[in-house]
Amino acid sequence: xxxxxxxxxxxxxxxxxxxxxxxxxxxxxxxxxxxxxxxxxxxxxxxxxxxxxxxxxxxxxxxxxxxxxxxxxxxxxxxxxxxxxxxxxxxxxxxxxxxxxxxxxxxxxxxxxxxxxxxxxxxxxxxxxxxxxxxxxxxxxxxxxxxxxxxxxxxxxxxxxxxxxxxxxxxxxxxxxxxxxxxxxxxxxxxxxxxxxxxxxxxxxxxxxxxxxxxxxxxxxxxxxxxxxxxxxxxxxxxxxxxxxxxxxxxxxxxxxxxxxxxxxxxxxxxxxxxxxxxxxxxxxxxxxxxxxxxxxxxxxxxxxxxxxxxxxxxxxxxxxxxxxxxxxxxxxxxxxxxxxxxxxxxxxxxxxxxxxxxxxxxxxxxxxxxxxxxxxxxxxxxxxxxxxxxxxxxxxxxxxxxxxxxxxxxxxxxxxxxxxxxxxxxxxxxxxxxxxxxxxxxxxxxxxxxxxxxxxxxxxxxxxxxxxx
Length: 470
Hints:
The structure is a single chain. By secondary structure, the chain is of the alpha/beta class. Helix content is 38%, strand content 16%. It has helices at residues 12-15, 33-43, 87-97, 114-127, 203-212, 229-240, 254-264, 271-281, 291-294, 296-301, 317-328, 339-348, 360-365, 370-381, 402-412, 428-440, 449-469; strands spanning 19-24, 48-52, 58-59, 62-63, 77-81, 101-104, 133-135, 142-143, 163-170, 189-194, 218-223, 245-249, 284-285, 310-314, 356-358, 388-394, 419-424. A six-stranded mixed sheet has the order 8-10-9-11-12-13. The chain has a five-stranded parallel sheet with strand order 2-1-5-6-7, with helices on both faces.
């Protein structure tokens, strides 16, 4: 029987459950139901938690039930962390109980062998007998920091994930809290979702859900395959008209596609077809794993640029030239500043009012260069010929300018143009502190020149495409 999907998105119980049942081993350790319950409690989950295991009576002060049928209350979400062959029976009990959402952490399905594939088809058929949706199998699950929902089956090493507006979803547990340092990130996330094998809930379902999620401003996805090409194109076209969608897809090569099939048990889409689909639908295609976490920052915290005209403020002309070359890849141009801006900059220091505003020369002459830096930055940001700004920050030998930079950036909050920053200097601790504190103010800092320019470039391309759709 085909899996009948309910009319509503069906994903709300995954991300906003009032009650969760955790089925599996409750033995203390690095992985399993014990860790899930501890993670939920530490993250501040306010809903009900029902551990299920016939070998226990109590854990973490909670009553443990021998089976899901014995839980007297309603259950919104079930996490299953058992051997694969016991999953079908548990899902049947879930349907009898009226459960609408199940996360099957268990592996041993289509990613393993033909027997596992048949078992996966069986659980899909079982779910289709009710309104039960499945994430997984072979997944590390989901997270919703705003609700204290961190049901992570692996030990994380920290308790909280900062709330934010970036949703990160993938066909890998490498984006989940046990694998990525969300506890140390300077920005927050709205949702995390590992699809696993995608036997039911897939990329189209999650885009549907996140499109309507008021906490999500931008979504990034890592995919190894596309489940339904036509639906993907239809959904992504609609969603990208409202929110940016950034996708990293593996399987670009024939060998990569074959290996991805063994990872999640799904067939990869021809890379050329996927690339065409991205261009047609307005998806921003990513090139590497780091971009999955870096590039969405420009959309989460800065306004969209009104055009492709890039302003550059730097301490060295060489960086400016590199920025021009990199910007050209994304259609960014570096215009002459307006006559008024050039005149004002030249009054601050002769020769400063050029395409690349290079603070290096005045630094060599003006002892307290920060006394003119604020005026330079403010002058360029209000120039009518500029749509976005790449700003370079030098921290100094001991981070002595950090507080002054922060004061200047605070005055830029609410500015009309997006600002992407790159921080450099002789001490890594000063660079990290400057970066952290800038991002806490809402100004994204990127790890290198190329990433900063790409962020502004894809933001410009998205704004142009979105404007064309309106």
